[in-house]
Amino acid sequence: MAPTIWSRENKPRVVFDRPWKWLLLPGVVIQWTLYTFPSGNFAKVVTDTRVARSLLMTYVISGVFYAFAIPVLAVSLFVVFVGR
Predict the structure, then answer these.
(1) pTM for the whole thing?
(2) How does pLDDT run along the chain (84 residues), one tens digit per residue?
(3) What is the model's pLDDT at position 44?
(4) pLDDT for res 52
(5) 3-state secondary structure string, the chain?
(6) 63-80 in b/e burial notation, b at 16+ Cβ within 10 A?
(7) What is the dihedral of CA 62, 1, 37, 44, to 10 degrees?
(8) Residues 6+ apart with CB under 8 A from 15
(9) Contacts for 50-59 with beta carbons within 8 Å, 24 or more apart?
(10) Using CA atoms, how far apart are residues 39 and 43, in angstroms rounded to an integer?
(11) 25-43 per-residue burial string, b: 16 or more CB within 10 A, e: under 16
(12) Residue 66 has what pLDDT?
C-alpha cells in the first residue's frame, strides 16, 4: 500500500481505530502545526519536533484542550440560555 498524506503527516502515529481515539484529534492537529511551522532558534526547533513526535504529548495536549474547551462551551451555553 502506498503511503498516504495522512500517514506521512501523522507524526505521533495515532491510529483512529477506535471511536474514543477521535478525541485525540485536537492534539494531533496542534502537534502537526508545531512540526510544520517551527519558530525560534535551533534548540526551540528541536524541542518542537520532539513534542510533535510524542504520543504522550498527544494525550496531554488533547486533555488541556478539553480542559479549556468544555468550560468555555458550558459558560457560553449558560449565557445564551439563562442570560436572556
Answers:
(1) 0.73
(2) 445 655 555 566 677 788 888 898 898 888 888 888 888 888 888 787 777 778 888 899 999 999 999 999 999 999 999 876
(3) 80
(4) 76
(5) CCCCHHHHHCCCCCCCCCHHHHHHHHHHHHHHHHHHCCCCCHHHHHHHHHHHCCHHHHHHHHHHHHHHHHHHHHHHHHHHHHCC
(6) eebeeeeeeeeeeeeeee
(7) 80
(8) 21
(9) 52/11, 52/12, 53/11, 53/12, 54/12, 55/12, 55/13, 55/14, 57/12, 57/27, 57/31, 58/12, 58/14, 58/24, 58/27, 58/28, 58/31, 59/24, 59/27
(10) 10
(11) ebbbebbeebbeeeeeeee
(12) 95
62, three cell numbers:
488533547
Residue 72, C-alpha cell as written in the block? 468555555
CA distance 77 to 40: 39
